[in-house]
Specification:
9 helices, 42% helix, single chain, four-stranded parallel β-sheet, 14% strand, alpha/beta, 264 residues
Length: 264
């Protein structure tokens, strides 16, 4: 499986992987090849694809390449080819009555400078407010993720910041925050911006065991207690929450944005 792009390869990987997810029983060996933006680089890729084809199984190639001369070189490869841009660009050109810009890599380039810098500011905010490190400027937060340790707070925070430019803080629920009926003092004034995460005791125990094997922290009993306390806290304070056990960061982020009405 080759994901080929004239830019970073992110779009080819994302769209191609979304299609491949419909075939869970098939195992793939994946290769991402970015910056195929010249005839020479296309020819080198074709040689690599042909070598893979010589193994007896025809490769599949997902491509997001705009330049016609580069695409024509890729067409010579011994592979099942899925052009993720070509046909759609033609359709859009016809619908919009104009031709597509030939500049490469626009989607994952800097693009709108203000939007780019907003995302960078959001990442800085997320780093400063990771794991309750800072209570400064929490009034600016779009959302504050609260959860026991190792429920997925940090990766979700960083994804929302980097992908959407949202100001996201996260706060760990620890033994020091219980027993209490209300939210921890640091985040209590911003209850309307809080969103909780939970998981299953077994999953949490497995994740914590990788960090501190054989500890009370990773024991199934401790994980069960912490999750029950957290869920009770969410319900008492009407904090929306979701179970992260079987969800990807992308799915959790989408659900948080929908629940908190953070989409544009």
């Amino acid at each position: 499986m080759f994901f080929v792009s004239d830019s970073t390869g992110i779009t080819a990987e994302t769209l191609g992987s979304a299609l491949l997810a419909n075939f869970p029983a098939v195992q793939f060996t994946r290769h991402t090849v970015p910056f195929v933006d010249t005839i020479e680089s296309a020819q080198a890729l074709v040689a690599a694809v042909d070598r893979a084809a010589a193994g007896g199984v025809l490769p599949i190639m997902f491509a997001t390449v705009k330049a016609p001369e580069v695409r024509s070189q890729l067409a010579d490869a011994r592979a099942v080819q899925v052009d993720l841009l070509g046909g759609h660009l033609v359709e859009l050109e016809q619908a919009l009555g104009t031709t597509a810009d030939e500049q490469l890599g626009q989607y994952h380039g800097v693009g709108d400078m203000e939007r780019y810098f907003a995302r960078m500011r959001a990442v800085e905010y997320a780093l400063e407010h990771d794991d309750g490190q800072s209570g400064r400027a929490l009034d600016m937060a779009d959302v504050i993720i609260i959860a026991p340790s190792r429920c997925g707070k940090t990766p979700t925070t960083m994804y929302l910041a980097l992908q959407y430019g949202l100001l996201v803080a996260n706060y760990p629920l620890t033994d020091d925050d219980f027993p209490t009926d209300g939210l921890p003092r640091t985040v209590a004034p911003y209850a309307a911006r809080c969103f909780g995460l939970t998981t299953t005791p077994l999953r949490l125990s497995q994740v914590r065991h990788e960090r501190r094997p054989g500890s009370t922290y990773s024991s199934l009993a401790q994980c069960t207690i912490e999750l029950r306390r957290a869920e009770d806290l969410y319900r008492r304070n009407r904090v929306p929450f979701l179970n992260s056990a079987t969800k990807s960061v992308e799915e959790m982020s989408a659900l948080i944005m929908q629940s908190m009405r953070l989409r544009d």
